[in-house]
Amino acid sequence: MKKLNFLAICFIAMCSFTQAQTYQNNTPTDPGDALPRLSGCGFGTQPGVQMNEITVPITGTIADPTKITIDLGIAAMWLGDVVIDIIAPNGQAITLIRRLGASTNAGCGSSKAFAAANILSFNSANATVIDIGAAAAIIPAGNYAPSHGTAPYPPYNPVAMGPFLTGKSISGKWRIIAYDYGQGDPTNVASWKITFAPGALLKSNEGGVFSNDISLQQNPVHDQLLLNVQKDFKNLVFEIYDPSGKMIKKENMLNSRKDFNIDVRTLSPGMYLLIPVKDGERQQTIKFIKK
Questions:
Q1: pLDDT tens digits, 50-107
Q2: pTM for this prediction
Q3: Most buried residue, 45, 103, 148, 249, by most Cβ within 10 Å?
Q4: Contact 187, 63 (CB under 8 A)
Q5: pLDDT given at position 255
């Protein structure tokens, strides 16, 4: 048990910032309002579109998505109008809010409002969706999961935040796009920010080659860990540990080979420790991210 606790402590220590890193944009977007085409709501409109961006200057790969929070201050008089997408630096998108209360393509959805001062915090650990049935006419500040109406239109990106964030490089431009699908009640983003709490990232200088003897060929990984061993050995064992320090996989390798692969398809997305044991001696720990 002492060994496992030590591994867990090492895992946390190697992957953490000492304090949170926050990047924000407090310049409001212009109000966006839909133009009527066939009707005043949903697919009957030409949506108003506004965009804002945050540049993250640090490098790193997301290891623990529960330590990343996106805060939004939105001003909108009609929830059923609003769609909010976040675009990562690699161009992939997640929809955090989508026409709440709208159940049909031309439906107007909920008539409740967003207030810019009521900050909506989105995190992959949050389970509460925005409650359009509450008595208050204005959605309160709080911690929310992505929240979507049931109407098929518009198309959106309904992935969960955990899988969306895990393994992504954070360096570059993060964009927010605000769409308004209702005539007469404009939408704008007053402010937004991204916070990376300690332990969120595997830093870029912690990936790749880990010693002269053993190297990981790619990181993050999908289905297979690809490893290369430079020097001869009599016995080589690879042990994989989860963040709690529990060993979840152990592979014995033949000494006639130099290149190895380990099947990790059954592992959940996240960060893991790989410890090579070469001829009975533990080698430098390798951290990897399973996408």
A1: 999 999 988 888 888 999 999 999 999 999 999 999 999 999 999 999 999 999 999 9
A2: 0.71
A3: 45
A4: no
A5: 65
**DSSP sequence for 222-290:** SSEEEEEE-S--S-EEEEEE-TTS-EEEEEEE-TT-SEEEEE-TTSPSEEEEEEEEETTEE---EEEEE
Q: What stretches in the chain show pLDDT beneath 50? A: 1-16, 203-212
3 SS3 class: helix
Domain boundaries, the chain: 21-196, 214-290
pLDDT of 9: 36
The pLDDT score that the predictor gives to residue 263 is: 92
d(CA 141, CA 66): 19
- Are 256 and 234 a contacting pair, CB within 8 Å? no
Position 125, amino acid: A
The CATH superfamily of 214-290 is Macroglobulin (MG2) domain (2.60.40.1930)
d(CA 180, CA 236): 59
Q: Residue 3: which of 231, 290, 282 has the closest Cα?
A: 282
Specify the 3-state DSSP secondary structure of 126: coil
Distance of alpha carbon 203 from alpha carbon 15, whole angstroms: 7
| pLDDT at residue 211 in the model | 45
Q: How many CA atoms lie within 13 A of 110 on its CB side?
A: 26
The Cα angle at residue 41 between residues 39 and 43, in degrees rounded to 5:
80
Q: Give, for 46, the enclosing helix (H) or strand (E).
A: strand 45-46
